[in-house]
Amino acid sequence: MNWGGNIVRTHLSWNWKDGLGVLAIAVLVVAMACGGEEAPTRSATAAPKATSAPVVVPAGPTGQLVVGVVGLPPLIQLQSKDAPGTVGGFGVWWDIFDPILSPKLMPSKVYPPTDEYIPQLAESWVIAPDLTKITFKIRQGVPWHKGYGDVTAEDIVWTYNNSFEEGSTGNAGEQLPSGHKVGWEVQDTYTAVMNVAEGGFDPLWGYLHGGNFLQAFGMVSKKAYDDMGEDKFLTNAVGTGLFEVTYWRGHDEILAEAVPDHWRVKKARLSDAKNRRDA
Asked: What is the pTM for the complete model shown?
C-alpha cells in the first residue's frame, strides 16, 4: 500500500469545549516498500476469547499538536473499491471508523496471540465447535456519524460481504482467507454470523478480520450507502469513531469534530482535529 511520499501536517487542537475530545491518537508511519522481509512467526492456536478494552482518559495539555504523517489518500468508502485501504488504514488509525474487534499490539514480525482479541463494535463472539461459523453479538447503542442511526448486524454483514464480492478490487477483502469468504448473514438485529467453509477455518481469523499493525477492517453504514447512492457515499465519510469528518479532500486536508459521549470514552479531550497536507 503506497500513498506516495507527501508529508502531511496534522493539527490537533486541544481546545476544551464541555470536556469534549479524544482518548488518544496514534500515528503510524506506513512503510514505503515491503520486500525481502521474513514472514511473521505464527503463534500456537487456541480458541479466541474476548478481553476488555482498557479505557484511560488522562489529563492533557492545551494548545496545538502538529504531527507529520506519510500521505493523505482520497477517501474511497466502499470496501469493494477501496484498493488503497483508506477506511481500514487511514480511517481507523485516525479514529474515524471502527473495526468489529482488534488484536493486541505486538512487536514487529510477531503475530498477536490467537486466543485474545479486544472487542470493538462486536462485544462478544462464539466459534462453533465444528469451526464452520463464528457468531458475533454487535454492541448496541453505537451511533453512526451524521445521524444514520445505530450500528446493526446488517451493517457488519454488508461491509464484509461487499469486500469480497465478485469483481472487488478492495484491499480489505484481499487480506481475508478464502475459507472465510463463504458469506456473512444476519441472524437478528444485533447478531451477525460469519460462515466458514468446511476445513477452511484460519487460526488467525481475528487478526485478519480485525486488523494488523498497518491495516484494519473498518465498518461502514449500509443505510448511508442506500440514502446517498454509491457516487456520493464513496467520498462522504460516515463512521463510528471518536472523530466525525466534516471535510476530506485527498492530498490536501481532513477536518473532523470530536464526538461527544462516544461509546468508547464518556468524555473525550480533543475538541477538533485538522489533518492538512503541506503545500
From this structure: 0.74
**pLDDT one digit per residue (tens) for the chain, 279 residues:** 434 433 333 333 323 333 333 333 333 333 333 334 444 444 444 455 555 555 555 555 444 555 566 778 899 999 999 988 899 888 998 899 999 998 877 787 777 776 788 899 999 999 999 999 999 999 999 999 999 999 999 999 999 999 999 999 888 888 888 999 999 999 999 999 999 999 999 988 888 887 655 567 899 999 999 999 999 999 999 999 999 999 998 887 888 888 888 988 854 444 455 554 443
Q: Which residues of 201-228 are buried (b: 16+ CB within 10 A; e: fewer)?
A: bbbbbbbbbbbbbebbbbbbbbbbbeeb
